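hey all, quick one before standup. I had two proteins in the batch that finished overnight and I want to keep them in one place so we stop losing track of which output belongs to which input. First protein below, input sequence then structure tokens straight from the run.
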Amino acid sequence: MAEKPGLFSVFGALKSVRFRLLAIALLPTLVILPLLLGVTMVRWSGKFDALLTTKVNSDLTVAHQYLATILENTGERLGAISASARLRDITTEGDEDALRLFLEDSRQKLGLDFLFVVDGGGAISASAGTGTGRTRVDWPVRSSALAGKASHAIDVFSEEDLKTLSPALAQRARLDLVPTANAQRGEKPTETRGMMIHAASPLQLRDGTTLALVGGRLLNQNLDFIDTINDLVYRKASLPEGSQGTATLFLDDVRISTNVRLFENQRALGTRVSQVVYSAVLGSGQVWLDSAFVVNDWYISAYEPLVDSYGKRVGMLYVGFLEAPFAQAKYETLGSVIAAFLGITILSIPVFLRWARAIFKPLERITETISQVDDGNLSARTGLPPNADEIGQVAVHLDELLDRLQQREGELRAWNEELNVRVGQRTQELQLANLRLEATTKQLVMSEKLATIGEITAGVAHEINNPIAVIQGNLEVARVILGDQADLARTEFNLIDEQVERISRIVGKLLQFARPEEFAGYVERLSPDAVISDCMPLVKHVLSRAGIEIVRADKATGLLAMNRTELQQVLVNLIVNAAHAMPEGGTLTLTSFDEERHGSHGVGLAVKDNGVGMSEDVVARIFDPFFTTKRQEGTGLGLSVSQMLIARQGGEITVESIPGQGTSFTIWLPQAL
């Protein structure tokens, strides 16, 4: 036995080696590789997102260059027309019709919405696509041309400016604004301004007069323009399947030309950019390169501000593509990598464990043997064959020690069993004697208490009955003697009658508690609902005086067997107690129902109030004889007698109460056969 702790210490050292070897074998696969994989996946995800940002930035560059090319081409072509000798000759000759035809032909070739010649005073000499009259010359583009220098820019025309040129242009520019998620609130319901490609070139006449040739192209609802940008930026097969490239031109924060779809066949014209993008691009003048919510979905987006000829930010150019296909591809790639790693790990771990099994198996066998010995199985052995290694030698030595230990343990166990048998016999005899003594003592105490209470109660009841009879008799004699004058003391005589009747009832309860067998009435089959209804007239005055509302729920279908008077006595007692528990009024709920208890069918009667309730200490003593919470009115026998009457019929009465919420008494009686 003295050698056993030494074996445990050796085993503890081997066990420690076992777990260290496992840790060395599995640490790279289960800890280091997952960490490296996680770091790599995070860096790859960041690079993937950065690549998408670079892609959309490149797309924005292409769209910007196209827009800049359109502006430059418009300016250059307008300059070529203004430098033509024919235009100079027609203008010098003053042939209005020829000039108008020339401008109209040039306007159509350049794809402009208007083209006219204006002098420094704003008078339009001739125009194509617009009316004649006067127009503004304070635009930087026009004033620069009148000063002799060609210029072009993007400018915003007000509704009045558009109407001055052409009511048709004003109508084309008009867009009803559509409420858009994540956008800032707008006060105006309609966008009436127009965004123009605005160009002007000086026209030098032979007399030295300088006029300006002004042309423009309205970008509002110019779908050919925006579709050309989209086709140029997002060529076929330039995006993965499921993604979609989009381009949009904004006037302030309103989409005036876009191929983003609000519905399947409806472009999102009149919708507005999200608040966060608006603040960054138009508010701070930044270029937005990030994910953004566009109308009804998330896009990898690029926004850049557009500046007019005054240097003011008046709109935005946007390109972007759906984020969902790229996110799905990224997550699928990450999932594939994780699945591959898990698969490799699951396949490799069994190989490592199999290699280590030759070392761990003897250790596990030694561990199992020692555990069985600790559990009391002294016949357990390792059963390992003797090997040349250290673990095999320890196993053989352990088996030899266990053989000697089992022999000594058997001897001690035999002596211990003999001693336990003798002690057990004596202990059992003492326990039986003690149980009998306790039972006999309880019976004697209970019998003595009941006998004493019964004797005292019967004696007191009989002693009280005699004075009551004398009082009652003399009261009748006094009435006869006084005759008509007895009416003068009628109230006092009635009060004496009531108090004598009360004393009689108290004496009756005492005798009923002391000698229940003398008061047992005959049993009859009763309907619980009818008995409750018969009790109502008896307690009506008590309930009315207290302002108590009665709620009934008659659900019982069976009959019960009990003396009607006794059951009424129990119910009246419970109802009156409930009324006393609700001095400020309340609700009294009377319920009858079918219930099975102890394997027998029966009928339940519940009397529930929402009065003051009772504490656990009061509930524990509520059925004790002479215990009462009504210090001046109660006798403490009502619930004791009620419990006795119910128990005599094979039933039971229970109570549940919560202080401040109310009390519920439940009577259960077997169903009448």
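OK second protein, same deal, sequence then tokens:
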Amino acid sequence: MKHINIFLLSVFVAFASCSFTTKTFDDPDKDKLLMQLVTYLLEEGHFQPKDFDDPFSEEVYSRFLKTIDPYKHYFYKSDVKEFEAFKTLLDDQIKNYDLSFFNLVHNRLTQRIEESKAVYTEVLGRPFNYELDEVYQSDAENLEYVSSKKEMINRWRKQIKFSTLTDYHDMLSDAVNDNKSNADIEEEARKSTLKNLQEVSVYFDDMRRDDWLAMYINAISESFDPHTYYFAPQFKDRFDAEMSGKYEGIGARLQKKMDKISITELISGGSAWRQNKLQVGDVILKVRQEDEDQAVSIVGMRLDDAVKLIKGPKGTNVILTLKRVDGTVEDLSIPRDEIELEETYAKSSIVKKSKYKFGVINLPKFYIDFEDVNSRNSTTDVKREIERLKDEGMDGLVLDLRNNGGGSLKTAVEIGGLFIKEGPIVQVRSTGEDRQVLKDRDPSVSWDGPLVILVNEFSASASEILAAAMQDYKRAIVIGSKQTYGKGTVQNVIDLNRMIRNNTNGDMGAFKFTTQKYYRINGGSTQLEGVKSDVVVPDRYSYIDLGEKDQDNPLSWDEIEPASYELWKSSIDYETTVQKSKERMNSSAEIKLIDENARWIKDARSKDVYSLKYSEYVAELKKNEKESERFDALSDYTTNLSFESLAYEKPIMANDSVFRIKRERWHESLSKDIYMDEALNVLTDLNKLPKLDKLSAAKN
């Protein structure tokens, strides 16, 4: 086990147990208490505190309205005029824990949402005229708030007409031989839209005042930076499950449609899956705990509340009253257990290319359970997969960090240590304090052979730390998008309940806030700029704004003094390999087509005005379909490579059909993955190149 500075955990414990013991938080009003806790953390703990002043007030004001009514479908100009009286007063209200503005807006929004039901029901009660020459503006930034109910009905009408137009066209295409009239099909399309809106309405009806209050608090929090965020209790549970990859329950995913809560998936390996009696499609009518006589009906209940009843400590049982797909009703007792979310965890595959064997490790997240130091985490899992791949005779390794949004800083440092002897991995800095260099202090190396790291625009945070460190050491070749996401900040998560003595207000949730920035060992920041790939390969998102630099209020880029480190002692000519890869990419017809497709997607996404005239809609659709045919070849791309599971997975696949299908799908996707193909080409080149004299250069 690596002896690494347990940075996130140590800071969390010190912050929670020491910094807040001198201040008392005990307001009997839960809402005011929550505001007090959050504002205190923002003022005293955030990396870059802001003044609660008039400009800040205006920012919170605009952000909150945009969050709760993004398409300007609810509020009228008269509402907004009334709200504007608070535009420069929110800073004072925030400091005084005054929720007058929130209460006004929340009450008005509740009223307008209820009114909207009658509006869209009325709109969908009449046929649409698809011969009318009119357009729909999809970008709400270009819309004013409406002044009258007539204008509001018209705004809803255009949006609903646009939504229904697609169904109308599809139903017309499917009904060629059904002998249905256009009028019948048009009515059927409207009914489909109404059903969808009613399902959305159920979601709104389920929202409580504290759900909306959480949005207001986050309008305040996100005005500091995009990653400072309040977690209401139910969202904190989800965050914990995502970070650790596990939770305690029966291992079933639920969905609510209208008043019914049904089973949509059984998690492979979970207790419900092992029991093999619960089925996808079963509707849950009631929930009873094993030590209680009375069952609780969950028909019409909030999904989050129903989930709370079903989840529980491992070793206990829950009794579900089910309506089966065939209509029968029965009670089923299901044991609860610790459920591992397999899709969260690292997985590996082996593939032969030429005379070499290469390993692939996909790491979806840098996961860890800070509450259970003995539980599995991304470091131990990646190390285990490396050992298994070495046992299979691996000649080179691809570490796939695409779409990995980050996670634990601790595990990012530890995983970096698996590929170098010892040395710094990342630097962190708090406001007004000296930098801290986080190092790998273990001289052992799990893998010292050729290494390629795959990234894309969604590789963020801990992914960027690892990729940047391996790039700075010249330990790995980074292949992927022009740059990664660009998140160079560190967050801490504080359980707000730990800040309150004798809490009688119930679960207060948690708060995640930015406490530090991190820097590469060369001194540069990944903030905004991300990690630049050694070999840039375009993808469909190349021209779309979706990185940190495109968010609201990102912290700025800067740099600090570099750490002292030595380049990886290598006998491989990486520069020649990178150049050969670039030449392959520049001459690849598929890569050129991907770039053209990315530009086309950029143009399509930038469009915000659409015709509501059916003939023009069809003409535009045909034009787009013809244009998209040029890119059909991309979906046909495949290699002759066969990716396989390692030996230890073979018995699991034989006994678990769900697990087997997931692995087979992953292997198939790898065989059609042009980026993975190039990563393996690079590993092949690294194995073929003549060896150079070993090098060792000091960096200061």
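Flagging for whoever picks this up: The radius of gyration is 28 Å. The first strand starts at residue 135 and ends at 137.
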